Amino acid sequence: MNLIKRRNFYLAQGFTLLELLVVIVIIGLLASYVGPKYFSQIGKSEVTLARSQMEAFEKALDTYRLDVGRYPTTEEGLQAIMVKPSNATKWNGPYLKKEIPLDPWGQAYQYRAPGKSSDFELLSLGKDGQAGGADENADITLP
Description:
Helix content is 43%, strand content 7%. A hairpin with an 8-residue loop joins strand 1 (110-112) and strand 2. The mean pLDDT is 84. A three-stranded antiparallel sheet has the order 1-2-3, covered by helices on one side. The longest helix has 52 residues, at 17-68. It has two helices and three strands, in the order ααβββ.
């Protein structure tokens, strides 16, 4: 008799299909609420990463200018901080520890010298890779 009670006790411990469905619905509702907030943070972190990379380039460009006496030309581009240009006699680089990365969206950073309002301009076209845009698609410029 004791064996029958123990067997019925173990059979009664499972979940019903209705209980499992309720749990799945609750998890789905939570995911639909949290998911969009999580993915919007990813976009913000990509913009922050692009800005911090561009600030590192700016420091390297300033060091280049101190050594060479000028910023690289548009034709020399950002590669001038990694590879010595032919006319830069006092070049003491490379000015970055690693190769110049692509922006977080897989595009090359753009460099112009002189810039619109300063000696140079660094530019990332954002997620869409097109000039202009808003939010994640907005251009990121430095300085």
